[in-house]
From TrEMBL, chain A:
Protein name as annotated: 2-oxoacid:acceptor oxidoreductase subunit alpha
Keyword Oxidoreductase: yes
Gene3D superfamilies: 3.40.50.920, 3.40.50.970
GO molecular function terms listed in the Swiss-Prot or TrEMBL record: oxidoreductase activity
Domain Pyruvate flavodoxin/ferredoxin oxidoreductase pyrimidine binding intervals: 16-246
Domain Pyruvate:ferredoxin oxidoreductase core: from-to ranges: 276-370
Cross-referenced PANTHER family: SUBUNIT OF PYRUVATE:FLAVODOXIN OXIDOREDUCTASE, SUBUNIT OF PYRUVATE:FLAVODOXIN OXIDOREDUCTASE-RELATED
Organism (species): Biomaibacter acetigenes
Pfam family, one: POR_N
Entry keywords, A to Z: Oxidoreductase
TrEMBL record, chain B:
Organism encoding this protein: Biomaibacter acetigenes
Domain of life assignment: Bacteria
One Pfam family hit: TPP_enzyme_C
Domain Thiamine pyrophosphate enzyme TPP-binding: 51-197
One of the GO biological process terms: cellular respiration
Name the record gives this protein: 2-oxoacid:ferredoxin oxidoreductase subunit beta
Key words, A-Z: Oxidoreductase
Amino acid sequence: MSSEARLMQGNEACVEGAIAAGMRFYAGYPITPSTEIAELSAEKLPKVGGKFIQMEDEIASMGAVIGASLTGLKAMTATSGPGFSLKQENIGFASLTEVPCVIVNVQRGGPSTGLPTLPAQGDVMQARWGTHGDHPIIVLSPSYVKEVYELTIRAFNLSEKYRVPCILLMDEVVAHMREKVELPDPSTIKIINRKKPAPSIVNYEPYRDYDGDGIPPMASFGEGMSFHVTGLIHDVTGFPSTNARVTEALINRLMKKIFDNLDDILDYESIFVEDAESVVISFGSTARSVLRAVHLMRQEGQKIGMIRLKTIWPFAHKAIQNLSSQVKNLIVAEMNFGQMVETVRASAGGRFNVVGLNKFNGELITPDEVIVKVREVMGHA
Amino acid sequence: MRKELEKYFRTEKLPHIWCPGCSHGILTGAVIRAIDNLKLDQKKICIVSGIGCSSRAPGYMNFYTLHTTHGRALAFATGIKLANPDLKVIVLTGDGDCAAIGGNHFIHAARRNIDITTVVFNNNIYGMTSGQYSPMTPRGAYATTAPYGNIDRSFDLCKLAQSAGATYVARGTVYHIPQLIKLIEKALQHKGFSFVDAVSICPTYFGRKNKMASPVKMMEFIRDASIPIKSAEKLSKEELAGKIVIGEFYEEQAPEYTEEYAKVIEKVREGN
């Protein structure tokens, strides 16, 4: 049965999506503008037999989430800029130990305490490289309330499938805006659960690539198989090693399990790019302004298109590289001083003129500002 | 090692990495003996540690073991225990791990009275990084980062645990092993947050800086400084200066966190 249409906030859609995806554990710490996610998780989780805990700080929340996931529960935490910074060490732990978990970061203006209630997209690079060392991570970014629901489910699915922390990078606008949403029939939702070790395995080695797909099956604490988990570089048995070949093999596998599956992980929407001379690249709430601008300019006959990234990291280089040679300009619209634009520039490799449209004052990028920028770049300002 | 204890160890991982004369092996043995004496189900025990010398212990122990980030063992352990209350969760931590970087998690785990047993391997020093002063280094002692003598005041971890809400609190030492095993047994049997301050020795980094480079000297120091709580009660504050008071400090039955949460689930689901 399909539920009736509801007026729903982005943060609420996130919790609905998480529970639909199978979230049964949430640990968090209050921070604007993500707090509704904690409040609604506290209310809804016990109803489905799940657990909620408000921890003493952001670091502890991330630790508790990893601990819960190691017992087999799907676990999530939500935060905003300053809290996201605090979680980074344990996000790295989850990345190296391959513990599935979902981290929601509702971005606000920064740096530091910054602009607690105003929108920004300043954590693009922190989401990719916030924790130390080479590590895999998946980052998704929704633009609509309905999409918050869908991408939260997808974040759990990707996290479970690839045993990697998955970050849902929202912004304050998407998180607090209310839109009409019709949730799908739960039975139609595709749910992915982590791969378990085959019962035939004796002497289970927690980091052995039994299936050759780069993703070791994951036992849970409490299931009967004794095993060790450490944040130190480890061999296939899970115990520490400083051996150069072991280290290289582990880091290679961690990276390859993501980069060998880009077709599955990458998700983006291309609009009017076929005959476009200028393409605006955007994500999150900014993409909504871009879409409006593109429609308005198309009505004027301008050859403009857009790419809306739903998977931010790994970066969808193919979305740039597949653009036809008639494209002259790429405009990267983002609410920061210029973060994703550098990756787009690297991806363009000199083929296109790459320009940033940046705003970092706590105000949204408006459709008018997109139009002005595109006209300027196209040379008819 | 006694044959019947071998099943609790990952014997292929031995010998351990600790320095000659370190007492962390004795403490690991005490935890194992307490588990064995109680005949706890090995398949229901999860041992969690942070970072430091003591936090390497779980790697040698044949249970579900988790070696986390510095200071965060109790945060991870809280997630494990709440997610699966059937597990017996034991945290092994050091004095720096528990009382400095992990101090916040320590007081809040105690406050929640979550059913976790914490044993701090308290050797008064950061051993893994080779001898910096910790929150447990006595005033006046020397360390690589206190070359002119430590001016920091140290915690009384038992008082801290008790005032934060721990419902079983005890202190033992590596010199008084039969007593320490008993204290850990009581902690493991206690429902709620139980805490054992296990006073340990680091001849290599604490001893060498403080004229006790030989393990025997350090053991003798602990023997001579220790005083049972019953005797300590008769002494003045001045007479107690520099003493290590050992024994059982506190025990109380109080609502346990995961049981309380189970009641929340029950209440909410009845309402449905």
